[in-house]
Amino acid sequence: MYEPRFYRNWTHANDLVSFSVVLKETDLLIQAKRNLRRKALRAVTKYRNMLERYVEHHPEFLAALEPVAVEEDAPQIARAMARAAADVHVGPMASVAGAIAESVGRELLPFSREVIVENGGDIFIQTQRTRLVGIYAGEESPITGSIALQVQPQQTPLGVCTSSGTVGHSLSFGRADACVVLSPSTALADAAATAIGNMVTEAGDIGPAIDFARSVPGLTGVLIVSGEQMGIWGEVEVVPVGG
Questions:
Q1: pLDDT above 70 coverage of the chain, percent
Q2: Is position 3 within any domain?
Q3: What burial class does residue 3 get, using C-beta atoms within 10 Å of its C-beta: 0-12 exposed, 13-18 middle, 19+ buried?
Q4: Which pTM does this prediction carry?
Q5: What CATH number has the domain bearing residue 90?
């Protein structure tokens, strides 16, 4: 079922060209120095085909809610997903959106020095100027629309991925309104957002969830919103917006 991606209306990068690529369940918004839609579509097709063929022979990879070992000759994207999942103790598909966003983004970098790929709220970003990433924690949240993450060029390439137990249809065992994770690996950021979000059922869980994030090699920052409470750790620069 298609879910309207209303948050894309908040994306404003007037110095970049925006275009979308849709293939089956994959729906990307891409911003680059020029329209690279054909190259992006070829990349999406390539990586989806890799995963679909792999899952056809390894159905446990698709259904598992815990880490799954993969062969050394498995497709690179499957190995990246498996590594990310193992690092935070979730199933490999918890990292699929981030893995595809990063894989496509890196394929486009030879043709554009700046690339932003958004895949269902999970973002791969390579930028040469400061960018703002908005935070959506639900219509009722005081956080929504009031703050944004400020991403500096020296932080990129960077994955910025979000999980929510109260917004959207993605599987979460927690009740966090938003769990935003930063990592140079977008696959790891995606998997970690799921794992950390699963830990937060109330505001009192924010502290232990941040402690877990600090223990995961490769994560550089996390922001967790639960009700009116927010916790932040790492290389997370928050700025007010809309004021």
A1: 89
A2: no
A3: exposed
A4: 0.91
A5: 3.10.520.10
